[in-house]
Amino acid sequence: MSLLNIDRVTKRFGGLIAVDNFSARIDEGTITGLIGPNGAGKTTVFNLLTGIYPVDEGDIFLDNQAITNQAPHRIAAAGVARTFQNIRLFKELSVLDNVRIGAHSRGRAGIFGAIFRNGAARREEATIHAKALQLLQEAGLAEYSSELAGNLSYGLQRKLEIVRALAGEPRLLILDEPAAGMNPRETEELMAFVRRLHDRGLTILLIEHDMKLVMSLCQRVIVMDHGQKIAEGPPEEIRTNRAVVEAYLGKEA
Amino acid sequence: MMNMSKSLLTSILRRIDEKEKSLYLSLLIAVAILPLVWQSDYVLRIATLCGIYIVLALGLNLVTGYAGQMCLGWAAFYGIGAYTSALLVMRLHASFWLALPAAGLMAAFFGLLLGIPTMRLKNTYLAITTLGFGEIVRLILLNWTDLTRGSMGLPGIPSPSFLGIDLEGKLFYYYFIVVLVIVTLVTMARIVDSRLGRALQAIREDELAAKSMGIDTTRYKIIAFAIGAFFAGIAGSFFAHYSAYIDPHNFAFGESIAVLSMVILGGMRSLPGVVFGAVVLTLLPEVLREAAEYRMIVFGGILMLTMLLRPQGIFGGVQRKKVSQTPVAVGQGKQPLYQNR
Fold first, then answer.
1. Which of B213, B321, B325 comes nearest A104 by C-beta?
2. What residue in A sits closest to B321 (Cα-Cα)?
3. Which of A16, A165, A195, A235 has the most other CB atoms within 10 Å of its CB?
4. What GO molecular functions are on record for this protein (chain A) (predicted)?
5. Cβ of A59 under 8 Å from any chain B Cβ?
6. Cα–Cα distance between B108 and B294 in angstroms, integer?
């Protein structure tokens, strides 16, 4: 069963074709890697998936429901959560608040609930609070709950971003270069963390330049170059694929 | 009335720890007995004015401090509330108790009206648009003479009555604004610590990330404007009946800047800070009345010093507990970071 279906999607920026007739299917419960040289269009694909850029042509389906060109907050509510290449935490808010904000689309309390604190609003607050604390505990971040997110170390900020995304109970988790800037030990820990999420049945799509991580973590790898998909398959196959090697290293003379 | 303010009081007090509790309690007692201890019409007038500006500044603080949306036309909502209330009571002979909430709702409605087309704008553009909005409202108040009498203003705005008793005494106004301030404070404290308040703060921190967390940023920004404007409208209504005379001059650009200064001086995002800022900047012109020519210089100088020395405001950044200033190093926690369970 494919959870996400990207169907012949094209995105142009003026004269530049950033994503060119790109199709891909992501199966439920898998970890898929999206790789390619710099400027290949990987992050643009993520931004199309999450509604940050409008799609020029093609369609995107989440569980057979079209999410093409929907507003980002609707796509998030539909179950797509993401992290960013350059960490975008709510720096001046506490670690706990960051995670509680991540759960926004799972709540419904509005102005009335905020001001009058009726039963439903109080119960919802309690549920969100408990869930956020549990997620922080599982990620080993509980001791930093009242810390400002901006005061955490780089590695912990990356992890908090994932936890924040998880708070929305996503069906698809999109990670944009989760290991960027991490030292080998942090990368190891991150891989263990992602594996644990996978073991729980979460579908994950990630962009990554660390090939060791991609090859050992992903069941499927999609390779992009110049906005197009040039290869797709299990990691062993991708490793030896001619087109991929050429894209990364250049053609043999 | 007693019961209501009592339950409001307990609900504030439940939310703050013991040490702060005694501080706030003594403040409240001081506010309550002020007119009895210091029997001066002048003092009472200044104190009442402080209350009006606290309500105005708390409303703006939700928009600018929490949601991070600049507004240079805040006095427009104040004016809309004042004129709505005054005209309802004078022309349609409505009761003040009806006109007061109506003034709030009218201002909130204009908050929505301003919000819908402008919420896609950011920073400077939003600042300029709200500045324009403030001027438009002032010019309408000035030029729609059939309705507002223009620059002649509206004199003789009646005082409210309750159960047939005319409430025109200065004491009534003083205690009534105290109640309004408490209600505004409680409402704001509750909003800040709620799903709605967190969404607003997320927008201030990083709008794109907020959208990706499922927050409909346009909608929430408009909500912030509407709620903030509601309180500005309430303050306007109170002011109209209290001063018994209003004209468009009361709601000019200078008022917008004054309220914004109160929010900045005390510290955006800190409710006690905003209260402090409003009180100081209301008292300051009175204290400096002797040196009237130098008043604005001192006023501007204080703002410049705030921006240079403490841009987060005097109370800014002291609100959160247990925040260490040193970054937490990776791997220095007690347990391994990514534990396999």
1. B213
2. A146
3. A165
4. ATP binding
5. no
6. 37
